[in-house]
Structures are given as C-alpha cells and as structure tokens.
C-alpha cells in the first residue's frame, strides 16, 4: 500500500509541476517588419496611384514583369521581376547552402522560430488580412478565417507535436530479427520547392514553409502571379523571424514570375509541392519526372455538400452559404455541388435564397460588404458562361445577391452570389470546377442516390454530409471517394492540422498537413542495428556458409517452419531439426570433411 501511495504522490507532484511550467510564458522576442511600402495611407507615390488595365490577348509568360493590382479597385500596386531559369537556380543553390547549416539546428531553435512567427501574426492580424484583401479581393473576415486561423493552428500543432513525429520511431523487428532493433529515421530532404495558388496568399506560403523548415529543410516558393505583391511582403515576416533565431540567410525564399519560373524551380529542388489546377499539375509531373523529383499535388475539387431530410434546415442553410461564399466568393473552400433530399428540397432552396439575397458584393476594405471581388481577370465571364449553359439545359435561376457601388474599371471583377436549382450532371456547372459564388442545388431521394451523385465527378478532394443521425452521415461519407470528409460541418477537417489534407482522382495525390504532410518533407530511412552489441552479433549459420553444405536447404526449410509454422508443435519439431543440423555441422568430423 505504501508503494502505491508513494507512486500516486510522485505522479501528482509531476502533474502539478507540468501545470506550473505551462503558466510561465516563453521568452519570445518581437520582430520589426517594414510595412511602410504596403500600407494604403493615401500618400502613395504617383507611380503607384493610377488604375491598372491588364492587357488582353497577350500571354503573361511573354512579360518580363509581374504586374500587381487590387482586383476590387484595379488600383496599381507595383511590379516584380519575372525571374529567369538561371536566376531561379541561383536562388535554390543559395537555399541549399543555408539548409546544410539549418539541418543541424535543434528542435528548440526551430520552436522558437515558430513562436516568433505566432507572436507577430497575433499582433498584426489586421495588417496581414488587409494585404491579403488588397491583393486577392477577399473580405477581412474571410482573410481572418482562411489565412490567420489556419496558420496559427498549424503553428501550435507543430509546437506541441512536431518534434514527436520527427524523432526516430522504433518498430517491431519480427521473429527472425529478435536480436535486432529496428527504427525509422526522418532526415531533411534538402530544398523543397512549392508552387502555390493565389486564393490564400498568406497561408499558401506559410503552410509548406512551416513543415519544410521545422523538418530541417530549406524552401523556395513560387508565388502566384496573381498574388505576388502580398507573397513578397509575407516573405519579409519569415526572414525576420529566421534572423531572430540566428538561422542562415536564404533558407526561405520567394521567386516571382510565370510558367518559365515555375519550370525552373521544379527542375532544381529535391521535392515539389504544387497547389493549382489539374492541367498545370500534369505539366509539373512531366517536368519532375525528368529528375524523378517527388511531388505532392493538390489540384482543387468540386466537393459534394449532401443534406438529408432530418436536419435543421435553417442551421444547415447558413453553413451552406458560408461554404460557397468563403473567401470573397472565390470558393476556395470547395463546395460546388449541393445535393438536398427531396422532402426538404423546397424549404432548403427557400432558406438559402433568403440568405443569399441579403448578401452584397463590393470593395472589401470599405467594410460594407459580405463578399469581395473575383481575383482572376475575366473569370466572371467564365462563371456566367457556366450559368448560361445550365440555364440552356433546363436549370432554373432562383436568386442573386447584389453588387454595391464599385469603380467603373472594376465592374468585371465582381460576380454576385447566385442560386440555381433543377440542375443535373449534363451541365458543365456540375462537372467543371467553377471557383466562384454559385450554388447549384440538385435533389435526391435515397442515400444510395446521393452517394452515386457525389462520386460522379472527376474530382475527389472532400465532401460534407449533414444528417440528424450522425451514424447515417458517417455511413454516407464513408462511401464517397475523396480525401477529406466533414460530418455535420464543412471544411472542419482543415482546421484540424493534425490531419492530412489532399484528394484523389483529378484532385491530386500526396498529402500536406498532419503527420503525413510533415514526414513528406523528409527522407524516410529504415535502420536496423544489433540489440545487444557487441555481445550478440549476426553470424551466418554453418549449413549455409560458403561452400554451402549438402543439407543447407533442409536447414532453411526447418528454420522457416520453426519461425512461422502454423502451430506450436510444428514449430517445436522444426526447431529440434534446426538444432540437430547445427550440432552435426559443428561436430569435429563434419568440420574435417568441410576442410577436405
């Protein structure tokens, strides 16, 4: 009794000490990042004060500069050079030199780097969101949800669990290697390359960077030509934090340009992470194949949003509208196909229409609008073509939100939120990734039909299933061929940064985030060593030493049965035969025969 009481006291004391240590704040220095040239204080120079009109009919790849502008106002932001292949290779070489030193850094130093970033992000949320909003057209709320929260969640997960998943992991040695010890080691790959999309300019840069740097790599990121202005500012934050922990220069870099820049990056790094379209993803795979460079592809999706008849319609309607309008109607969250049970179809359509009708789009930084601008030039025209195709094939227009006061030059950058019903899978709107604020709603009558409809897509990123019965919702989700699934919620899987993120089919392959994404930045090395070295060493049994004995195969047969026989008696019988053969081989007479 005294022993157990002492053990309890020690355990309680340990728990109290751990709790008290949690109350002691870490000593995290602040960093100073120059933002004077990105703040819109009304005192811009004449060079950066005009309205930018993007040229039509010319391929951007032919340009030597990446021109940047606010999609919501068309206000000019400046330009960055389109780097040549030679310049890209030089940047990668610099990162490679820096990585050799960083690979030897301690996890303590890496965690301090993360804490400095986290502190800066929390203290400068408005600045980060405003820059994202100006460069991509999203609202401040959408920037906070998609940029700030997801990044902070990833940092805190790495702080609490990152080291654990990068330490050597010991594995079972099996029956034949009981005298050995086996483990998996996780070493840095070298320099990771990332080519990221424009929809989340802050998070899309920080997401691969955090995993790569924490696992001991360097990283070079090609920012999207549609979000270069913000990406280059976010690099300043990273470099300042690295300098604060004494990391080598050039460990993290951002390169700017078009397709040629991206191709050069793919050819220069040890692993490539790509977030973008299936078409570009296939081109990257072809280029990566030349050097057998491993790739992770996240190629978008057309997620199914399934609503069963036993839900709270008002509650689910709010989630549905948020899902399709997330990130200023750019639909970065991925919900593009809505399947609603026929029993509640009319009430669901009515409820979401009421919500959408109250939504207005306009310049996001005015603070008056629920939705911002479309980032891509001429994308609103493509969205309208998808709507027209659906209407021509029998779909019914339900309602549209409103567009507020916008400048004449930015009219084409806005697309009002739109609800369409009576859709089917012959329509392009239900097959092609729209990437816009359109909610096409289709009815179903059975769970089997809902599953069939959800799987009738070339994409397979995610799904969301809503039902009053959680068991039913899980059963439906388990049958949908996709990489992530949310039960009675939407996009919650991405906020759980311990989970891997990625899809199947045309949505790509490989995973980032979670343990799988962190280890994907590593050289995974299997190691086997002697458990009791130097007392027990590997020695080849005499029957199979060269020259192999006549009964060598008999020995092997018995050894296999002794290790893996189907029952204990067969294994014991085989073991006796193994010992018998070894005894005969070790006899003086047999040794003399071998010598002869």
Architecture overview:
This is Aldehyde dehydrogenase 22A1. Keywords: Oxidoreductase. Belongs to the aldehyde dehydrogenase family. InterPro entries: Ald_DH/histidinol_DH, Ald_DH_C, Ald_DH_CS_CYS, Ald_DH_CS_GLU, Ald_DH_N, Aldehyde_DH_dom. The protein has 596 residues and is of the alpha/beta class. The chain folds into three domains: 230 residues, 3-Layer(aba) Sandwich (Aldehyde Dehydrogenase, Chain A, domain 1); 186 residues, Aldehyde Dehydrogenase, Chain A, domain 2; 48 residues. It is built from 19 helices and 22 strands. The strands form six sheets. Strands 13-15-16-11-10-18-19 form a seven-stranded mixed beta sheet, with helices on both faces. A six-stranded mixed beta sheet has the order 7-6-5-8-9-21, with helices on both faces. A three-stranded antiparallel beta sheet has the order 3-4-22, with no helix packed on it. The longest helix is centred in the first third of the chain and has 27 residues.
Which features characterize this protein?
596 residues; alpha/beta; Aldehyde Dehydrogenase, Chain A, domain 2; 7-stranded mixed β-sheet; 6-stranded mixed β-sheet; 19 helices; 17% strand; oxidoreductase activity, acting on the aldehyde or oxo group of donors, NAD or NADP as acceptor
């Amino acid at each position: 009794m005294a022993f157990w009481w002492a053990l309890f006291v020690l355990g309680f004391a340990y728990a109290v000490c751990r709790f008290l240590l949690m109350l002691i704040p870490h000593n995290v220095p602040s960093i100073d990042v120059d933002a004077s040239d990105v703040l819109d204080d009304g005192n811009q120079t004449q060079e950066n004060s005009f309205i930018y009109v993007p040229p039509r009919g010319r391929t951007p790849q032919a340009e030597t500069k990446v021109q940047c502008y606010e999609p919501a106002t068309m206000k000019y932001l400046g330009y960055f050079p389109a780097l040549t292949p030679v310049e890209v290779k030089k940047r990668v070489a610099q990162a490679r030199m820096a990585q050799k030193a960083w690979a030897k850094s301690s996890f303590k130093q890496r965690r301090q780097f993360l804490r400095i970033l986290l502190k800066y992000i929390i203290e400068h949320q408005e600045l980060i969101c405003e820059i994202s909003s100006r460069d991509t057209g999203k609202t401040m709320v959408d920037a906070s949800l998609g940029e700030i929260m997801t990044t902070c969640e990833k940092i805190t997960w790495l702080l609490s669990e990152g080291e654990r998943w990068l330490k050597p992991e010991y594995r079972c040695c099996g029956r034949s290697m009981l005298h050995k010890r086996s483990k998996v080691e996780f070493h840095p790959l070298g320099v990771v390359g990332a080519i990221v999309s424009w929809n989340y300019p802050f998070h899309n840069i920080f997401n691969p960077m955090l995993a790569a740097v924490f696992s001991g790599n360097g990283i070079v990121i090609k920012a999207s030509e549609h979000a270069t202005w913000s990406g280059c500012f976010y690099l300043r934050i990273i470099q300042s934090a690295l300098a604060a922990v004494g990391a080598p220069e050039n460990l993290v870099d951002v390169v700017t340009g078009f397709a040629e820049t991206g191709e050069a990056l793919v050819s220069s790094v040890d692993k490539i992470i790509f977030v973008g379209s299936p078409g570009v993803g296939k081109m990257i795979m072809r280029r990566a194949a030349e050097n057998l460079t491993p790739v992770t592809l996240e190629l978008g999706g057309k997620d199914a949003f399934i609503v069963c008849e036993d839900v709270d319609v008002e509650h689910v309607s709010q989630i549905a509208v948020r899902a399709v309008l997330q990130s200023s109607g750019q639909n970065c969250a991925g919900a593009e196909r809505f399947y609603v049970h026929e029993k509640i179809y009319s009430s669901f359509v009515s409820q979401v229409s009421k919500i959408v009708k109250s939504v207005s789009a306009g310049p996001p930084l005015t603070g008056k609008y629920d939705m911002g601008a479309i980032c891509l030039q001429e994308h609103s025209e493509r969205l309208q073509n998808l709507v027209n195709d659906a209407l021509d094939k029998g779909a019914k227009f339900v309602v549209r939100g409103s567009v507020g006061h916008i400048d004449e030059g930015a009219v084409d950058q806005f697309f009002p939120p739109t609800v369409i019903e009576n859709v089917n899978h012959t329509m392009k709107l239900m097959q092609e990734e729209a990437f816009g604020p359109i909610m096409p709603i289709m009815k179903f009558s059975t769970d089997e039909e809902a599953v069939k409809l959800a799987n009738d897509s070339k994409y397979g990123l995610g799904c969301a299933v809503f039902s009053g019965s959680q068991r039913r919702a899980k059963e439906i989700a388990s049958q949908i061929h996709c990489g992530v699934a949310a039960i009675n919620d939407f996009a919650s899987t991405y906020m759980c940064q311990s989970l891997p993120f990625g899809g199947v089919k045309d949505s790509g392959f490989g995973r980032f985030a979670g343990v799988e994404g962190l280890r994907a930045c590593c050289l995974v090395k299997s190691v086997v060593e002697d458990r009791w070295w130097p007392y027990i060493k590997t020695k080849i049994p005499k029957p199979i030493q060269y020259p192999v004995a006549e009964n060598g195969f008999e020995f092997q047969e018995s050894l296999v049965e002794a290790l893996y026989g189907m029952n204990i008696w067969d294994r014991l019988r085989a073991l006796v035969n193994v010992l018998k053969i070894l005894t005969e081989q070790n006899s003086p007479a047999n040794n003399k025969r071998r010598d002869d």
